[in-house]
What does this fold into?
Amino acid sequence: MLTRYLKLYYLFCKQNLKVMMEYRMDFLLGVLSVMLQQFAGIFFVKIVFDHIHQLNGWTFYEILFIYGIAATGRSIHHIFFDNLWTLGWQYIRPGKFDRLLIRPINPLFHFIADRLQQDGFGQLFIGIIVISTAMPHLDISWGVLEFFILIVMIIASGFIFVAINLFFATLSFWMVDSLPIVWTIFNLSDFARYPLTIYHKGIRHLLTWIIPYGFTAFYPAAYFIEGSGFQKLALLTPVVAIVSCVVAYWFWNKGLKAFTSTGS
Amino acid sequence: MIVVKNLEKYYKIAKRDPGLRGAVKSLFHRKYETKKAVKRISMHIESGEMVGYIGANGAGKSTTIKMLTGILTPTSGEVKVNGIIPYENRKQNASHIGAVFGQRTQLFWDIPVRESYELLKHIYEIPQKQYEETLAEFVEVLHLEPLLGIPVRQLSLGQKMRCELAAAFLHRPKVVYLDEPTIGLDVAVKVRIRNFIKQMNARYGTTVLLTTHDMQDIEEICHRIIIIDDGSVIYDGSIQDIKAQFGDKRVIQFELEHSIDHFVLPEEIRSAAVVIPKTDEDHHVVSVSFSSKEISGAEVISCMMKHYPVLDLTIADAKIETIVEEIYSKGLKGRVQHEEIH
Ligand SMILES: Nc1ncnc2c1ncn2[C@@H]1O[C@H](COP(=O)(O)OP(=O)(O)OP(=O)(O)O)[C@@H](O)[C@H]1O
Ligand SMILES: [Mg+2]
It folds into this structure.
């Protein structure tokens, strides 16, 4: 069962990569533009820190580290799960979603595997570069265990992005296209690229317990930052990821059920 | 193979007053209107049958097919395909069925046809040897060879439809649903597709349920037709039977010198004949339908010629087209009487 899906995913990917190579120019431009976008964000932080040494007790490299985890986690979502954006306008509205329902495989799997997003690679490169730039400046010695935890945290971060987008994309089953909502929610994740301590308590709680974007960057990064005070909470990151995914998948199945009873 | 009992599907349509005010109002409380797309239909289709499922636009054909494929959950009633309840065991059902929806593609848009088939091979877990044999056969019958290397998005409608058909039959499904597979195709492609369907049925015993507005499709492929009108089955039986039942029907097409906008049937034949509503845009042609038991063709013609300058005429006998046209426009005899009582 699992091996079957892995094999199928590999085959879908292979096809998607071929298409990507066909549009080589698009690939390069996409990657470059995303990298530029990310650079702009980092540049902004740099300018801020040219004037101050610390932001609410956080140093430049600490913030860079948070930023890097956000970018890398997000890139997982961006590369492999980008199709979530298109549920309403590319699948449900033109009736293409029906096709997924008459195949003997899980429709969510089919839907996700249908697309691989090249632009996400730009984000991945930037994320890795930023993390490795910031790492040596943190007060921590990097052993195998730390690396392992870092990778787990990043994967968990990616899946939290996925779960949140899946949850709100699922609304498309009821309202034809939930894209504007997905966008609005997704933009909240920008807050999580900075230390949550700089925000009002309300926002902090929202981003921790309601829409857990805090666990996509700030908390996982805080685990590695001595004296941040969030080390314990940070360990919850993988749990939050799993719970979010379970909730989102449950909601997706509800949406699917609603869709098959209304047909639109 | 397909068992349907008292199947119903109601759509809930959100009703909204026109304009911005209506839109705002609908945000707060919505009124719903129920559309009864399929009403208590029952049918029983045996393995290996090829059945034409026909009806006017909006009659409920596609809705029925969506329930049979598991895409839609019925409002009430029973449906079983090959012993499986499609909407409950969608994936299990999916591995035994194939489908073509004429209006939209099942294939992968960006990748070449051959690679699409390769993916389907894995999705449906078709054994390699069977896959190769099947594909070779389809390539020959549907002339797919020149198309295999081309991405689906670059194919013409007719080319795409041939590829779609092959995709639907590739895993040798027990049942195939074809929802308007010949829509918009030229005659040559239609013929090829019909032959392919017949061949699949003969060779693999595939059960076929076909909807179409092209009666030629029906006449060449199906032995049995089910006619549905406004969500209810109004005829279920063999084509021969319906022809016998309506065998006395005749239709004469008159081409007149003047526009038919103000045309009325001459008084003398009004009790025995009716005008078939127009479907095309030709304003000089009128079709008159009648029963040869009640009035002879000669009488109709001479009467028409007495009242209108006739340029040309063609007589059609009980072809399935004319019968179906008549049924769509009037309903079956019993139904018509029934409605007149009310
Ligand atoms: N998703 C939907 N929501 C609401 N109403 C619908 C929906 N789909 C179809 N209908 C309505 O249900 C009725 C039956 O539609 P259906 O598509 O089954 O007809 P059909 O027989 O396939 O027609 P056609 O020959 O035009 O394809 C129509 O009146 C249609 O407007
Ligand atoms: Mg239809």
Notes: The mean pLDDT of chain A is 90. Chain A touches chain B at residues 4, 7-8, 11-12, 15, 18-19, 22, 94-96, 98-99, 101-106, 114, 257, 260-264 (CB under 8 Å). Residues B 61-62, 179 surround magnesium ion (ligand 2) (CB under 6 Å). Chain A is about 70% helix and 0% strand.
